[in-house]
Amino acid sequence: LLACALPLTAAAPAHAAPPAPAVALGSVIPAPVEVRPGGPGFKLTAGTVIEAPPGARAVAEQLGEALRLRVVRHASARTGKIALELGRVSGGPEGYRLTVKRNGVTLRAGTAAGLFAGAQTLQQLVPLRGARTIAGGEIVDHPRFGYRGTMLDVARHFHTPDEIKRHIDEISKFKINHLHLHLSDDQGWRIQIDSWPRLTTVGGAAGTGVDGVGGGYLTKADYRDLVRYAASRYVTIVPEIDMPGHVNAAQVAYPELTCDGIAPPPRTDTAVGYSSLCIGSETTYRFVEDVIRELAAMTPGKYLHIGGDEAHATTDADYLTFQKRVLPLVRKYGKTAYGWNEIAVAPEASTAVAQYWGLTTQNPALAAAVANGTKVIMSPANLAYIDQKYDPSTRLGLSWAGFIEVRKAYDWNPGTHLTGVPESAVLGIEAPLWSETLRDLDDIEFMAFPRLAGHAELGWSPAGDWESFRTRLGAYGPRWAARGVDFYRSPQIDWA
Ligand code: TNX
């Protein structure tokens, strides 16, 4: 009893174990492949520096900014540093090894992308408040899938470049490495194309969002700047122009893209499946080739998404005719064609990537395409669509694919989900965020988080474990709160 009145340090015998670190070594999202806790841990102080070779300087600077530490080429002392090293590790280009000892931290990876991934892990291990002691031990980590993505729909409601950048900051913390931008739809056209300027002057004008709210578009300079910004966070931009359906905004701007040459009325409602390019017209292919050429030229990433979904106003025969010409055009401009899973019916899709958005675990057309070489990105709408409401009371979102609470979004396996689509054909996972009901960044964050953290873990970590994820997610909440991220406080989680 008397001992309790004394300061803890005085009461503790000299040989007692040091206090447990505030953040356990494995408390990271996405869960690392191997976590071996042990040893006393490393305490960050005002004197701690980050040491990095020139090839790791950019990652080191970002880490230094996040942890408020100085970056140097060579630390003068042998101890008290976080050393970034470029060198061999297992696990591919994004693999890394993080070693935490009493006298310092070593983060080693084969590439700057691997160091970036490791730096995200390290940041989550530094307690948000109190002593900045990082738990001792070693983490060896690498991703399960190379493609871990999310999508923003800037067509239904435009999101500004600044909003997109803030979102890139948040998604990259979970090692998401692709951001798909849905750049055109019936309501609006959001990317400058020099050879068809009215696409944006008309299709991106004020009032072109759902309910007549918003409007706007990315200039080529905006887009290139976004590509660069994303690349600095190891995120690749995947641009989508949706066709042959979802093209009303393009036809409002250019009536020659319809079969009768008459401009349709602009649409700001949320119906789908009513518009189609004119499949028999050469103007269509001149348009499509110009758009693909200009988009490919400003996109360093390998994927170019050509939509292909919900083409209900295109006959089946016309759809095949269209894809027979358009899928090879993507290759002509040096890109891998990527489309919604409907493209799988076209034989030319054998070298393409199909994004599965169906509600069931069977899709014979896609399974047949996979047997011919098509690769798949998993976005099953009932599990991965983060525009769907969490529950009936969610103030934003749609619910046609069902309600998707945090556990439902997490509890599935992208490698075994679809019959006839083995893990070897799955490039990864993507969580699309359609924007019919969204306006601003708070709306984006509320729908994306926390679910997207779960999708990131499905894409990165070897196997899902809901109880473990639930605990780590609850512990993560204060980090979102501290950054002002407006996340959904799901009742399924015990938030710290
Ligand atoms: C279906 S999913 C669409 C989009 C809508 C979305 C809303 C898909 C490939 N197409 O046009 O925005 O549902 O959830």
Second rung of CATH, namely the architecture of the largest domain: Alpha-Beta Barrel
Number of domain units? 2
Low-confidence stretches: 1-12
Can you give the helix content as a percent range?
A: 25-40%
Shape estimate: elongated
- Cofactors and ligands: ligand TNX
Describe, in short, the structure shown.
The protein has 496 residues and is an alpha/beta fold.
Task: Summarize this structure as a short list of keywords or feature phrases.
alpha/beta; 496 residues; 7-stranded mixed beta sheet; elongated; disordered N terminus; single chain; binds ligand TNX; 16 helices; 8-stranded parallel beta sheet; TIM Barrel; Chitobiase, domain 2; 2 domains
Write the layout of secondary structure elements.
Layout: H1 2-5, H2 8-11, E1 34-37, E2 42-43, E3 49-51, H3 57-67, E4 70-72, E5 81-86, E6 96-101, E7 104-109, H4 112-125, E8 133-134, E9 137-141, E10 147-153, H5 161-172, E11 178-182, H6 198-201, H7 220-232, E12 236-240, H8 248-253, H9 282-297, E13 303-305, H10 316-332, E14 336-340, E15 353-356, H11 364-371, E16 375-378, H12 381-384, H13 406-410, E17 426-433, H14 441-448, H15 451-460, H16 466-483
Parallel strand pairs: 3-4, 3-5, 5-7, 10-11, 10-17, 11-12, 13-14, 14-15, 15-16, 16-17
Antiparallel strand pairs: 1-9, 2-8, 6-7, 6-9
Helix pairs in contact: 3-4, 5-7, 9-10
Bound molecules: ligand TNX.
